[in-house]
Amino acid sequence: MNKEMIAMILAGGQGSRLGVFTKSIAKPAVSFGGKYRIIDFVLSNCSNSGIDTVGVLTQYRPLILNSHIGMGSHWDLDRINGGVYVLQPYMDEKEGNWYKGTANAIYQNMNFIDTYNPEYVLVLSGDHIYKMDYSKMLNFHKEKKAKATIAVIEVPWDEASRFGIMNAKEDGQIYEFEEKPENPKSNLASMGVYIFNWSTLRDYFIKSENSNKCFDDFGKNIIPMMLEDQAEMYAYSFKGYWRDVGTIQSLWDANMDLIKYPDAIDLNDSRWRIYTNTMASPPQYIGKDADISEALIADGCSILGDVENSVLSHGVYVDENSTVKDSVIMPNVKIGKNVIIEKAMIGEGAIIEDNAIIRNNEDEINVVSEYEIVKPQQVLQGGN
Question: What residues bind alpha-D-glucose 1-phosphate, as annotated (predicted)?
Answer without folding.
Answer: 99, 164, 179-180, 190
